[in-house]
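Design review, sub-item: ligand-bound model
Attendees: FS, YL, KQ
YL presented the inputs for the flavin mononucleotide complex:
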Amino acid sequence: MSELATGVREICDRSGGDRARMMDIVQEVQARFGCVSGEALNLIAAATGVHRVEVEGVVSFYTFLSGRPKGRMVIRVCDDIVDEMSGMRPVAEAFSQELGIPFGGTTPDGQFSLEYTACIGLSDQAPAALINDVPVTYLSSDKAREIVAALRRHGDPRKLVHRLGDGNNAHPLVRSMVHNSIRSKGPIVFAPFEDGSALRKAIAMSPVEVIRDIKTSRLRGRGGAGFPTGMKWEFVRAAEGEPKYVFCNADEGEPGTFKDRVILTEYSGLLFEGMTIAGYAMGAQLGILYLRGEYAYLRLLLEHFLDERRRRGLLGRNILGRAGFDFDIRIQMGAGAYVCGEETSLISSCEGRRGDPKNRPPFPAQRGYLGKPTAVNNVETFCCVARILDQSPGWFAQIGSRQSAGTKLFSVSGDVASPGVYEYPFGVRLRQVLEEVGAESPIAVQIGGPSGQMVGPADFDRTICYDDLATGGSMIVFGPERDPVYIAKRFLDFFAHESCGYCTPCRVGTELMRKKLAAILDGRGEADDLPYLEDLARTVKFTSRCGLGQTAPNPVLSTLKNFRDAFERRCPARQEGRRAAFDLAAATAEAESIVLEQAAR
Amino acid sequence: MSKPRVATASLAGCFGCHMSILDIDDRILQLIELVEFDKSPIDDYKGFTQRCAIGLIEGGCCNAENVHVLQDFRKNCDILIALGECAICGGIPAMRNTIPLRECLAEAYLDGPTVHNPSRRIPDDPEIPRLLNRVYPCHEVVKMDYYLQGCPPPADAIWAALTALLTNRPIQLPYELLKYD
Ligand SMILES: Cc1cc2nc3c(=O)[nH]c(=O)nc-3n(C[C@H](O)[C@H](O)[C@H](O)COP(=O)(O)O)c2cc1C
Ligand code: SF4
Ligand code: SF4
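KQ shared the predicted structure:
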């Protein structure tokens, strides 16, 4: 048997040939053999009993998986808007020059590949990049050159880390240069916590009472959609089907969001405790933490803390000595796909499939992972749960605003003096936040990331909560020299790239919107582009299948609404009904060059 | 009052849409009562003689001449209608859009299995309009006002649209006129 065949067999055997563990299998094959080659596809298909095309579908779906060999070291430069504003372009150029390859290329010696990637959750330390699993932050073109020279010398990305970050970033299992940049602490998430304290209180109650407490606290999901957590848990508990599952969504792919990164680094105890309480409340025995591929550098640390909890009787069998209370957590690694943050895609991914969203209903609470009732919650939501049990639902409910209880973590980045994570009570005024983060004469703020909305100064006195300016946590601030149309275009680039392609309105619509925005930026806009864009955006919003397509038009709609001038200036009425975007000279250039070549013969 | 004028053009199309105009059968006599044809293959006027109320465009733009004709129509017509799939989306000719122009021409004039071309030249006489890099639907070149779908749109749909526009009534195209299976 070839080395590949033995290797793949070994890897598949370890997961019992279970097709649901396909993500683990293909990631391991790639780690060991550099890519998942055509031959590897055949071998995996045979060992797991699925068609080759299903394995291929998985490999081709995720950005971090590849069917072709890549360099031993893959440099992924984050091309998020915030990185661009912080000087990513010269950095990218330096990498490209120094390596002598364009983006998308691999050096002839097979050592390096160079790529762009969507937001890697380090907007507070931009420009940033990932080299294999290792994040490198605060890049400059000089640093990029040094990095390439050093990697040429020793070939080990981990050796690039000279000065360690704060807190657990310096933990021997992490050893990363990333900083937490916690800027303001509140009473709920960023507060001291003693492992086990909340769980003890939970098991002193019945599961139904725990859910009642969560409902009394008026906790709503922190992942963006804001669904009442207690109600979701009640659905899962009541749903038919065993076993039940608890999922933690740590995919954190919304550009400009990085608060879950900080929780995972420093407050995983709170998170795991929340998940365990969820297991108790819903009668689940397995929890899965879906960790985005970009955060792979935190994996060993998280595994370590999970082991520790097992040792201390906070996970595993008969938790805290309570007979029959069994619950454990495993980590499922993602592989670079924003849509996998959508809960049904996340479940597909955990089932070892492409991260395609599923039709709803049935909702995951009815039929989720492997067809069983599943509660999916955000990282921060679980932290709130633990704190609610630790303190009390009443204590929690009186923090924040009337409709929105508790605090919210904001990931603040862009044109501000102090980017980082801030914990604020709900109901805080945007203006206050902007002052405290050191935003100087901002012209626009993207609330809730690209899928949220872009607001201007007229909205700065609004409050941040579920009923006014809702947010999953991302807050990108733009200063006076930024261009709202360009920003919208960059966000649409992102959505067009991340669309899973299943439904036409989203797949085609995002592409049409970004093309139109590009034409407008190019000086080829015209008056009726604006109603066209509005119309198209609404169509995509109403006809797309999942949350990605339903929110992808938001940058277009909210900038058109709040920054109309910036569009109108560029979209004058054109003479004689000609389309400004059509350029006859460009359209005939190829034919002309063929003619010229023939004439020269 | 003089009759409203109608112009038509076939760009990158197969003339099937024009056939469909003729397919209104003896209603063409009614149409003649109602309108005067200006620039059109139907009467073979090569240029516009006056401003027109309606221009009917068959086919998209595959070469520079198509673009000039379409721009000329836009300049001379109050209302422009994209008639049929080719005008609306590029249609059959747009099947070449996924293949670079250079490869298309090489296949057609140099390398195709049935090609006999001893000069090994791709036709390049200045009289032949330059091809565009791809086939463009009309609305990407000029502003279009209406779209009549079908390949070709049924004569009854053309008739209904024209008469409604000319008599200033709302266009009503019942489902039966627009369903093709
Ligand atoms: C395209 C897309 C991406 C998403 N990404 C995330 C994410 O990274 N993290 C998250 O918690 N929720 C994300 N969500 C929301 C989840 O679908 C789901 O609502 C959430 O995890 C539920 O948890 P919660 O109720 O605790 O907020 C995303 C939704 C969509 C449509
Ligand atoms: S809306 Fe977009 S991401 Fe969602 S299913 Fe459709 S194509 Fe996929
Ligand atoms: S739409 Fe159909 S009938 Fe009309 S020109 Fe195109 S191919 Fe011919």
